[in-house]
Amino acid sequence: MSDFEKTPPSNDHSGDNKSPLLKRFGKNFATGLLVFLPLAILIFIVRLLIQTVTVVGKTLFGFTESVEATMVIFVLLIMVITYAGSKFAKREIWTLNSLEKAIIAIPLAGSWYETIKDLVGSFTGTGKTDAYLGVVRVPVGRGHVLGFVTRKDTGPDGEVSLSIFMPTSPNPTSGIVLFFREEDVQYVDITPEHAFKIIISLGLKR
Hints:
Low-confidence stretches: none
Oligomer: single chain
InterPro entries: COV1-like
Order of helices and strands: HHHHHEEEEEH
Shape: flat
Keywords: Membrane, Transmembrane, Transmembrane helix
Transmembrane segments: 29-50, 70-89
């Protein structure tokens, strides 16, 4: 019998051992990125705010050449922003509405402004949710998805049909429009703002 035939088969699985190790390392690294992602986004936002305040402060100081005058203007800006937030939360009409109409009337800048506003509103859950007629559960197999009623029509026979917008997650700016009989869906007792938060958060918020 030759030496080749006497040699037992090799049990060297070093290559196989490295592969699971690399996969486990990659998985743990990706999980670590997700863990630190909220903190990184928070740091980015805080840094952006600090840079914005610094730039605004330098610009104002360049005009006023006075620390006191700059601080007064800053306080006034904070008050105006807070006032605007209260008006928006109450859905009240104020001066900014007229300013928005003037901006939207500008051919190119107006369309850009509306697009940016809709995107910001969708991601923050503060979009044009008052235009929806309610939130419903759209049946999908044994489960359901959330949809927003955009239109309600009553036929000659008294049957009510609904147009339902079903947004995608986590980007609710896209989606599909479905048509259901009202009796085939179930209304959910939550506000459109709350429903948007559920969709944007991938269902983490309830």
